[in-house]
Amino acid sequence: MSKIKIAELFYSIQGEGRYMGVPSVFLRTFGCNFSCRGFGMSRGELSTEADDIATVAFHFNKYEELPLVSTGCDSYASWHPEFKDLSPMLTTDAIADRIMEILPNNEWQDEHLVITGGEPLLGWQRAYPDLLDHPEMAGLKEITFETNGTQQLTPEFREYLHDWVGNGFDNEITFSVSAKLPASGEKWEDAIKPEIVCTYEEVGTAYLKLVVATEEDIKDAERAVEQFRKAGFEGHIYLMPVGGVESVYTLNARSVALAAMKRGWRYSDRLQVPLFKNEWGT
Ligand code: SF4
Prior knowledge:
Elements: E1 3-13, E2 23-29, H1 49-54, E3 89-91, H2 92-102, E4 112-116, H3 128-132, E5 142-147, H4 155-167, E6 172-177, H5 188-191, H6 194-200, E7 205-212, H7 215-230, E8 237-241, H8 246-263, E9 266-267, H9 272-276
Parallel strand pairs: 2-4, 4-5, 5-6, 6-7, 7-8, 8-9
Antiparallel strand pairs: 1-2, 1-3
């Protein structure tokens, strides 16, 4: 039986993108190929918040005890090696059982499953079929992978997803691709991978969700969209304000919405910030 290292597993409202407002189970896998220390920082500077917390990691026994950050990756504990012990390796049986426990009626109704991270399309692709084929997952109709769009689907997983969509009348796969612009602190050539994201469109709906806070970020977003379109990407484009604490977020939301409108793009809120203050498990 397959196992997945799970950083968080919780039930909440999807706060971002296409399924904003939909009740959702969030499966946050451990591990990421990026660290995105640039969010919320001046261009060229990198946040040390996660690393500073990591120096006292021994103080924290569970996720809910970890401090929230206002700069860098807001889910740092899902990839930072110092927090790996907070993420248990669970069998797909145990994960399916836990999902049944947290669903309101202990069965799938209108809820959707969000597989997020970290970066959920790293090695765990080999384990998802075991989970999705579990009898307790039979009522599930909609899945979103929240990915940074740098990981190829393996041929086996691509085929599996293709069949999963074909096997159910209403089954839908979505790739919410948060391609990392330079404001994240990651390098353009490592982060902007249109040729990979185009392959996601062969098995489901894919859209770009670009996080911006400044005019410079919006210029980067335009450049990225141009590259994606040139490669044949057909999905929608969302602009989303930078995350972190509410004070940072509210400064950005209106100008980001106006920038999206001006270009005929979509705006994505981060409902988890005003609703739940971006706490762990939301
Ligand atoms: S890709 Fe996402 S999870 Fe990974 S470091 Fe960046 S923001 Fe965090």
